[in-house]
Amino acid sequence: MPETQKPRTLFDKVWDAHVVERLPDGTCVLYIDRHLVHEVTSPQAFEGLRMAGRAVRRPEATLAVVDHNVPTADRRNGISEPQSRLQVETLEQNVAAFGVPYIPLLDARQGIVHVIGPELGASLPGMTIVCGDSHTATHGALGALAFGIGTSEVEHVLATQTLLQKPAKNMLVRVDGTLGRGVTAKDVVLAVIGRIGTAGGTGHVIEFAGSAIRALDMAGRMTVCNMAIEAGARAGMVAPDETTFAYVRGRPFAPQGAALEQAIAYWRTLPSDAGAAYEKTVALDATEIVPMVTWGTNPEAVVAITGRVPDPAAETDTARRAQMQRMIAYMGLQPGQEMQSVPVDVVFVGSCTNGRIEDIRAVAAVAKGRHVAEGVRALVVPGSGLVKQQAEAEGLDRILREAGFEWREPGCSMCLGMNPDQLAPGQRCASTSNRNFEGRQGPGGRTHLVSPAMAAAAAVTGHLADVREMS
Amino acid sequence: MDAFTKLTAVAAPLPMANVDTDKIIPARFLKTIKRTGLGVHLLDTLRYDESGAERPDFVLNREPYRKAQILIAHENFGCGSSREHAPWALRDFGIRCVIAPDFADIFFNNSFKNGILLIRLPRAVCDTLMGDAGMGGNARLTVDLARQVVVRPNGEEIAFEIDPFRKHLLLNGLDDIGQTLQHAPQIESYETRRRAEKPWLPSIAI
Ligand code: SF4
Question: Whose CA is nearest to atom 2 of ligand 1?
């Protein structure tokens, strides 16, 4: 371990604390504290263990759940789609054979892996957390180093509780100032991606800092870190503080009592030292951020809701111009079209980006006393069973149902459409998820990424709308 | 993983450039839960017609190449997506070694992770070896990894380059996991230290 005197970043500190060994070429054997497992990227990893006669090194450091494939309609009678059912059953056989803790489909704690990790206290500050899923970055909101891995690496972690990794570079994204009314964490991260681009963070771990990030609750910080991957970064992180500690307190798997106080004392040492060096720094003024909406098929193709679809003719770079034209054509838009004039067919509220209770409250606040516009289908898919329970305890499901929203069972759902929740070709969706790639929500589907409040505004008006104009 | 030391086997000539991962294993076979069983779909669109019947003239459908363990191809083999299913399909078919002028990056890494030796040789040499391979079952090639040579049926030896670390892993049958497990004592002492320093780190029990 390098006991350097040099000021270190949050990332440096968490990294250094997990280096088991540094190999001559700079590759590190990195210890993994928490491994989250789901049904889609794990079958071949377990099969690999079986073929090599290996065990799971630390089952108690692992937590498995089904989320990607599961239907969000009533599922007491099981999963009808055969391939989805097979993947779920395979995970169930694997966790039983290898002794891995597992939250079954009908358990109230089931949900999207990146929602339940923090919610259950399985993800904690200062940890290394991995999952065979790129949006593992979400857990970085706690001040953890959390990143996605491939199937061979899933097997590697199962067998060794470590990964072979080289350290990433440090990038600082500062957002200072106060967010305006109706402007949320989702708008912040979309604005960041709009600024630095989808490759702006490549090779880096982004630390989000500044007064606007400090002022976010944990749900908001998770939304921001979740989409660090959409800026190309390996991971996103926010330094743990009193907001973090208050969030962790009392979570089922989190330490309690004296153990928690001991943990907090350690977590207080994690924030970046004054003078720590970053390879890249970007600063945004929170007061200038407005509600954002994507117009294209990657998350950097984003504008203010008050803006227009850009005109490719104004783009001098020919490759970029061609890409803009392709995106505008796929999305069925016109150059110069006002974003607020774009009608929607579907509204999707959910995903690991915006499927938490705070997000559902924001949707219900807009929906209350209003109704989903004629011809629009609006789904609310809670991120977990516990989120669903909480929402129902608060009466939010009733508000949403009365306003014409569908109230579903938890899972990834229309974020990636591996289950029956899919867009039809040509359908246009205002979605609180994180990826607007071609066909992501169903073949031919068109996705506009927005915040939960903006999704609700689109649902009740029938078009992309500025939530700030709704009283 | 089983070690790769010396392989004497039938080699199949595939005189094509830019054999991409979609050709090696089409996207529709990715919903599998296994990394085995993909061999039957290796090079699916080249091997089978629309009705699913074998194309009799395709090399892997002919004797003795049905049992080929070496594949010889042209430039940029394995380009395209990062799917690990591509080396899984090759390996499941029985291919342990691919010889080509060059390979796509991600495929290169994925193949070694799955115990497949990739050998870069100039185009002219690949063509010579394809000529040898075309002679069929009596014309086996030998790949001797320790000595870093490919031995032609006439006994001529052709030297090849390989990264020493990759060679070490293959010769000893070490996958990344096997490699990391050589550090098991260090992992154990890290775990002991960690338990003492961070006793609050929770275990999961459902
Ligand atoms: S909600 Fe979407 S982004 Fe998140 S884990 Fe599920 S599929 Fe991936």
Answer: A415
Residue A1 has pLDDT above 50, yes or no: no
Using DSSP's 3-state secondary structure scheme, residue B185 falls into helix
What's the half-sphere exposure (Cβ side, CA atoms, 13 Å) at A354?
Answer: 32
Residue B152: what residue type? R
Joined tokens for residue A24: 């001559």
How far is the centre of ligand 1, averaged over its atoms, from the C-alpha of A412 (Å)?
5
A415 lines ligand 1 (CB under 6 A): yes
At A403, list the tokens. Answer: 């306003």
Q: At what angle do helices A357-367 and A218-226 cross, to 10 degrees?
A: 100
Phi, psi of A417 (to 5 degrees): 60, 40
Structure tokens at B198: 């961070």
Round to whole Å and give the CA distance between A175 and A195: 12
For residues A368-384, average pLDDT: 98
Instruction: Tell me if residue A285 falls in helix, strand or coil.
Output: strand
What beta strand segments (E) does B5-69 contain?
6-9, 11-14
If you search the block for the tokens 């506009």, which residue do you land on? A448
Chain A interface with B: residues with Cβ < 8 Å: 20-21, 29, 31, 33, 43-44, 47-48, 51-52, 54, 60-63, 83, 86-87, 90, 101-103, 121-122, 124, 127, 150-152, 155-156, 159-162, 164, 253-255, 259-260, 262-263, 266
Starting at the earlier edge strand, list the strands of the sheet with A102-103. A102-103, A62-65, A34-37, A128-131, A145-148
CA A110 – CA A113 distance, rounded (Å): 8
Judged against a pLDDT cut of 50, whether residue B83 lies above it is answered with: yes
Q: In what order do the strands lie in the sheet with A19-22?
A: A19-22, A28-31, A162-165
Note the ipTM here. 0.92
**Listed residue (A44, A54, A86) closest to B92, CA to CA:** A44
pLDDT at A448: 98
Give the DSSP H/E element, type plus range, for residue A160: helix A151-160
Instruction: Report CB contact under 8 Å: A160, B35.
Output: no
pTM of the model: 0.86
Nearest CA to ligand 1 atom 4: A352
Domains and CATH numbers, chain B: 6-173 (3.20.19.10)
**Percent of chain A residues topping a pLDDT of 90:** 86
Nearest to A233 by CA among A151, A323, A138: A138
Among B122, B162, B132, B109, residue whose Cα is nearest residue B8: B132
Task: Residue A327: name the closest of A302, A305, A361 by CA.
Answer: A302
Of A215, A206, A220, the residue nearest A242 (C-alpha): A215
Contact A299, A198 (CB under 8 A): yes
Tokens 């989808």: give the residue: A198
On whether the CB atoms of residues A381 and A350 are closer than 8 A, the answer is yes
Name the nearest CA neighbour of B176 among A431, A54, A18: A54
What values do phi and psi take at B15, rounded to 5?
-75, 70
User: pLDDT (tens digit, 9 = 90+) per residue, A167-178?
Assistant: 999 999 999 999
CA atoms A103, A108, A110, A114: torsion sign = negative
Q: Give A309-372 as a DSSP string.
A: ---GGG---HHHHHHHHHHHHHHT--TT-BGGG-B-SEEEE-HHHH-SHHHHHHHHHHHTT--P
A42 vs A26: CA distance, rounded Å: 28
Report the 10 Å Cβ neighbour count for B2: 8
